[in-house]
Design goal:
The chain has about 130 residues and is α+β, with helices and mostly antiparallel strands. It contains four helices and seven strands.
């Protein structure tokens, strides 16, 4: 059992203004565009489990490359809020410190090298479906 972590992407002021305008003008296309974007605004970052390294979700490289610099740039974006699967908010910098340092010396406990890839001292799950 472990805890999943997510980046919640907050819409920009410009996006909110467009949404307001679409509502005022009863523009269903604009309303649906915003609502679809909002439904995709939760990005699974990875999972923390006792005794294993933090396992990053590579997300098909849609949000970050599999390295600390790219992940840090994404997570520290001011429009990102970090939450866990219980909707507990975590400070972005504290999340990175935890994730980058969680049981990193325990990679040998991962039972299948075919399921993981390693880069920049981090562990990534090769697939996007986490349990």
């Amino acid at each position: 059992m472990g805890t999943n972590f997510y980046a919640k992407i907050i819409p920009s002021i410009e996006d909110i203004e467009e949404y307001k305008k679409a509502i005022q003008e009863k523009d269903m296309g604009g309303i649906l565009k915003f609502e679809e974007a909002r439904s995709e605004s939760l990005v699974h970052l990875g999972k923390r489990s006792a005794g294993r390294p933090f396992i990053w979700d590579y997300n098909h490289y849609d949000y970050y490359d599999p390295n600390k610099e790219s992940i840090t740039k994404f997570v520290m974006n001011p429009n990102i809020i970090i939450i866990d699967e219980y909707d507990t908010v975590m400070d972005n910098k504290e999340f990175l410190e935890m994730a980058f340092n969680w049981c990193n010396n325990k990679k040998n406990l991962l039972n299948s090298e075919n399921c993981y890839f390693f880069n920049d001292g981090l562990t990534f799950f090769r697939y996007t479906e986490f349990s």
